[in-house]
Amino acid sequence: MKIQKLKLYTNKLVLEKQFYSETLGFEILESTVSHFTLKIGWSELTFEKSEKDYKYHYCFLIPSNKLNQAIEWMEKRVPILDLENGRKTQRFESWNADSFYFYDASGNIAEFIVRHELKNAIESDFKISDVLCVNEIGIPTSDVEKNE
């Protein structure tokens, strides 16, 4: 999926801005007191200020050969979520993909994923500008039937 623009809401706007611009190093395209927009590959990700606490799961696509380098890079900045017994990556056989997860400043579950069939490998060491796009968005719920 190629998400060109995505807007999420947060009640921790200042912390999210610090997280994405200072901790991770994404470029800020626009910033006001009520929102900011990041350049993430071919995507633009906007966080807008809200009084309500929203929770999301979203995913960033990275080059297909950079999973381990991206984990090492991220571990210097944020904790990687332990999936079980110290395992940090998730394999998706049906998608031919692997990923790892971390929390952003609002407690959203963010993910870096490699999709091997895309054959988008790069030769240089991983850096944040290698993130290709926002690739997935999910909105968690504790009551699926109610939210259909």
Counted by DSSP, the helix tally is 2
Helix content: 10-25%
Ranges where pLDDT stays below 50 over 5 or more residues in a row are none
Secondary-structure element order, N to C: EHEEEEHEEEE
Number of strands: 9
Termini, distance in Å? 22 Å
Which strand order do you get reading across the main beta sheet?
Answer: 6-7-8-5-9
- Seen as an oligomer or otherwise, the chain set is single chain
Please report which band the strand proportion falls in: under 5%, 5-15%, 15-25%, 25-35%, 35-45% or over 45%: 35-45%
Instruction: Write down the overall geometry.
Output: globular
* Residue-averaged pLDDT: 94
The structure class reads mainly beta
Radius of gyration: 15 Å
Main β sheet profile: 5 strands, mixed
Q: Can you describe what's shown?
A:
The protein has 148 residues and is mostly beta strands. Helix content is 14%, strand content 35%. The protein contains two helices and nine strands, in the order βαββββαββββ. It has helices at residues 13-23, 67-75; strands at 5-10, 27-31, 35-40, 43-49, 57-61, 90-92, 97-103, 109-115, 133-138. It has a five-stranded mixed sheet. A hairpin with a 5-residue loop joins strand 7 (97-103) and strand 8. It starts with a strand and ends in a 10-residue tail after the last strand. The relative contact order is 0.24. The mean pLDDT is 94.
